[in-house]
Write a structure and sequence with these properties.
Immunoglobulin-like, 4 helices, five-stranded mixed beta sheet, 39 strands, six-stranded antiparallel beta sheet, elongated, 561 residues
Length: 561
């Protein structure tokens, strides 16, 4: 498989999650002793995480056909590398009761995963990381009775393990010019199971003349490096080596799990981006404790960012301070209005959990502006005669207006027409990003209430959203893509607007057919009759066709299949 193919598959499978069930599956079918037969079907590109193999029943399906009476069996699983055939691991199921007819098993029950044994050269890596290494594999199962006699010889299916994407850099943009000593670095997280405790390593180096960013990251001493970042954004700290005006810097983020091992492709490393720092008037300033940003004056500006409708503090928002020059418009008579213009220099901070922000060392007797930005809100700007620094300002209130929407809907069982309650549903967004044409990320997740209703709040206006429901009782649901309206500068009421996406039907993986067998003429229930269930493939199915399942009736003549 070429690097381009691997990259495409990685993004297709581990970002979108859409194509897994649409791709061809590997199938093996075999008849064995005394009429027993079986078919093994595997996903071609399953999750690398063993926890998913234990919980997601769609990775492998084993169909066992028992021509006789109910029997107990054990299933042996062996995983090898392709094409070398090198042993990777093996395990055995607990005893399984197989009735006469056809039985469908899946990967969650066909082996006791805790008993799996691995090749010594791979054991520590697999056990510690909880995932299979990238590569091409073959899974084979063998069915035996409890005496050890083989009833179905080897059934095999091929699959390929492709790791999820590494972090994707967001800001500063590649080639951007940064005008603050303390830029905020942002990236998109790796998509891994919840039990993996990720942390990130941020590495920043100066790019020397004649170097490209990739060379600089390998060869140069770091300008700054932090190996224990727990979030996906990080502001350059005051105690770090200062950025130098006019110099070019490269940066990269690596994701590691709780064992210090990379859980994603490319050894967990993002792409490499660069930026240029441009000197501003606050040049050698710093940032004090508690999130305050310092310049070279002796005044303080502190305040709280609040939501326009709820008056609640808004945490984790970016607040930018500019000095402002005041000019005079001409041609307006004796008392011309003033014109307030931001200078090109700024200080930037992020509000804390209580929505508080603080700037230190500001110049007195100076006009200023404050800007605020956060996902789900309209950009805020305070500028004018009221924004004047005369002494310390300790209780400034900056207001930001929500621009978010609320999405609602309902999940209903397609067969029973009942609400599907307490079921997890994800809101996902298709990523219109370079190099990730098929990628998507989870925006949020929630559970349906007792009536099947769900609700997502604070949703930004953009295109490419869809819902995803993965419930072991139902077939995977991924809705069609839809758009949420963009910037809205008028609102119906507090909290923004609500969009009802309607009802989505979930199709059960297994159904129940109930009915009566009655004697013709007398219309009396007929106990003890044999009932056959056939696939609906045409009018001639009854003639010479093998039944899928049969059962005897109860004494009342009512049966459930």
């Amino acid at each position: 498989m070429s690097g381009i193919q691997r990259s495409f598959l990685r993004k297709l499978l581990h970002c979108s999650g859409v194509a897994l069930l649409a791709l061809p599956v590997a199938t093996s079918s075999l008849h064995a002793q005394a009429g027993w037969s079986g078919t093994l079907t595997t996903q071609p590109y399953p999750s690398p995480y063993l926890s998913d193999w234990q919980s997601n029943p769609t990775i492998a399906i084993l169909i066992v056909n028992n021509p006789g009476a109910t029997s107990q069996i054990k299933i042996s699983l062996t995983i090898t590398r392709r094409p070398s055939g090198a042993f990777v691991g093996s395990g055995e199921s607990n005893p399984i009761l197989i009735p006469g007819g056809q039985t469908v098993l899946n990967n969650t029950s066909m082996v006791s995963w805790s008993s799996l044994k691995y090749d010594k050269s791979l054991e520590s890596q697999i056990v510690q990381t909880g995932r299979l290494p990238e590569g091409e594999y073959k899974a084979c199962v063998e069915v035996k009775d409890l005496s050890g006699n083989t009833v179905i010889a080897q059934l095999c299916g091929d699959f390929t393990i492709v790791y999820p994407d590494p972090p994707y850099l967001v800001a500063p943009a590649n080639g951007d010019t940064v005008q603050t000593q303390y830029p905020v670095f942002q990236w998109m997280p790796c998509q891994v199971p919840a039990q993996y405790q990720l942390h990130y390593v941020l590495r920043i180096v100066e790019v020397l003349p004649g170097q490209i960013p990739e060379q600089a990251l390998v060869a140069n001493v770091p300008q700054y490096e932090n190996s224990n970042i727990l979030t996906t954004n990080f502001q350059y700290p005051i105690d770090a080596l200062q950025l130098q005006a006019g110099k070019n810097y490269a940066w990269q983020v690596q994701a590691l799990d709780q064992y210090g091992l990379p859980p994603a492709a490319n050894n967990g490393k993002s792409q490499i981006w660069s930026f240029v720092y441009r000197f501003d008037m606050f040049g050698a300033g710093g940032r004090a404790a508690g999130g305050a940003v310092r310049a070279h004056g002796n005044r303080r500006l502190a305040g709280v960012l609040r939501d326009l409708f709820t008056n609640q503090p808004v945490p984790n928002a970016t607040v930018v301070y500019h000095e402002v020059s005041r000019g005079i418009y001409t041609g307006f008579g004796a008392r011309p209005p003033y014109r307030y213009t931001e200078t090109g220099d700024s200080l930037t901070t992020v509000t804390d959990n209580d929505g508080k922000f603080e700037f230190l060392g500001l110049r007195d007797s100076t006009f200023f502006s404050l800007r605020a930005a956060k996902s789900g809100y309209l950009p805020a700007l305070d500028i004018g005669p009221g924004q004047y620094q005369l002494g310390d300002i300790t209780n400034y209130i900056l207001i930001i207006t929500p621009n978010s929407w609320t999405l609602t809907g309902r999940l209903v069982d397609a067969v029973r027409n009942n609400p599907v309650k307490n079921t997890a549903i994800e809101l996902r967004l298709q990523l219109p990003l370079p190099f990730v044409p098929e990628g998507s990320i989870t925006i949020g997740s929630t559970r349906t209430d007792s009536n099947g209703y769900f609700r997502f709040e604070h949703v930004d206006g953009m295109a490419g959203y869809y819902f995803r429901v993965s419930d072991p009782r139902y077939r995977l649901l991924e809705t069609s893509r839809f758009s949420v309206p963009g910037t809205a500068r008028s609102f119906i009421g507090p909290g923004g607007r609500t969009v009802n996406k309607g009802t989505y039907l979930l199709t059960p993986k297994f159904g129940t057919i109930e009915g009566w067998v009655k004697e013709e003429g007398t219309n009396k229930p007929l106990p003890g009759a044999q009932v056959y269930l056939y696939p609906d493939v045409g009018p001639s199915i009854v003639s010479g066709s093998r039944f899928l399942r049969s059962t005897g009736l109860t004494s009342s003549g009512l049966d459930s299949l």
